[in-house]
């Protein structure tokens, strides 16, 4: 029996609109109370761990305790950055400009949820919607359908406990989860907040409905000679970032470029921290490449069976021996870039490609070549003591985030020790075919009404507006 997805989604959207009409009349205090309650309830330790375990069991990806930590940081962080902020009614009044600004909701938000972060993303996007007095429909990946339903029900229980309409947060029922259902949500919602692969994000942007989506990740990291005395710190940060949740994050270090002057010492520090190095020319390199990309060089389709699996398991699948306790695998790639050199691309696993560079300029050019192949717009990182190198990257590298001397995946989407907004949707700018360059937050789910009142004229005289040099050229 065929399913009428258009009719099914229309029912979800209708219920969402009815619930949204109710919250549209809520005060700031009522909205914030709901957000606080949801954030607290979903980060109770046993609750956060339960959903982490559920997602690992359902998807076969990641580490339950890391997913629990992700719930803590992303959900608590999202609430912390919206706590006390105005999102209802008059949010700004400027007497000097005569402008008042009113925040208004968008309606029903369609939220596409990736399997890699299927535990925290539904909660964060629910908080974003409630803070802005919107309703939200959560559309999960098929491998996270049951977890998404369970998380949604937990949020709905909180809403009901506080007298709010449960239909402010809805999940696609597990039996309806499909590409066709997500497509209908993208057609019928008032706004789309999409997190996932590039094809899905492009579909969101082409749906005809206003949307925010994120681009493909392929983080490149540079380690330069100035941190020679801190290589244990550098290795610890890279390994912690790369192994977290078995690299489910699009923000893990996929390619690491190390200056020749410190390469050997860096590799030794990485091995001490739990990483195994497969050298250029070793038969193990070809085994690893073929395990990750079975059809290379014909295409660069990643083997789905290695996604977010432990390093030791990937090594076993490749018939490659690694030391006991290995959590990250490094594979040397000092050749070219692109499909014929698949280590250039994203791996969605605790496997990283590593390259040598003669100097910083050489490293920078290699970084740009990798990004030209994949990952433009997303993010890069550098371990250095030289601010001028960071500035050079800020001026030349086509990405929206540059992380300095920090673990990339634990920083990119916001953390307690950086200034990036906490988010599960990382804008990649036009480089990544996105409409935003920043980490999407609740502020992106608001319409604004601007009220203007007359003020004294601020028109300057031409002598004030144009310099004498310019005026003289036209005299």
List the topology elements.
Blueprint: H1 5-23, H2 28-42, H3 45-59, H4 64-82, E1 89-94, E2 99-105, E3 108-112, H5 121-131, E4 135-139, H6 145-161, E5 169-171, H7 179-188, E6 191-194, H8 198-205, E7 211-213, E8 219-223, H9 231-243, E9 253-259, H10 260-272, E10 275-278, H11 283-292, H12 311-318, E11 328-332, E12 351-357, H13 360-373, E13 377-383, H14 387-396, E14 399-404, E15 446-452, H15 462-465, H16 468-473
Parallel strand pairs: 3-4, 3-6, 4-5, 6-7, 8-9, 8-13, 9-12, 10-11, 11-12, 13-14
Antiparallel strand pairs: 1-2, 2-15
Description:
- It is a single chain.
- With 475 residues, the chain is of the alpha/beta class.
- The chain folds into two domains: 5-213 and 441-451, Aldehyde Dehydrogenase, Chain A, domain 1 (3-Layer(aba) Sandwich); 219-417, Aldehyde Dehydrogenase, Chain A, domain 2 (3-Layer(aba) Sandwich).
- It contains 16 helices and 15 strands.
- It has helices at 5-23, 28-42, 45-59, 64-82, 121-131, 145-161, 179-188, 198-205, 231-243, 260-272, 283-292, 311-318, 360-373, 387-396, 462-465, 468-473; strands spanning 89-94, 99-105, 108-112, 135-139, 169-171, 191-194, 211-213, 219-223, 253-259, 275-278, 328-332, 351-357, 377-383, 399-404, 446-452.
- A seven-stranded parallel β-sheet has the order 10-11-12-9-8-13-14, with helices on both faces.
- The protein starts with a helix and ends with a helix.
- The model has no long low-confidence stretch (mean pLDDT 95).
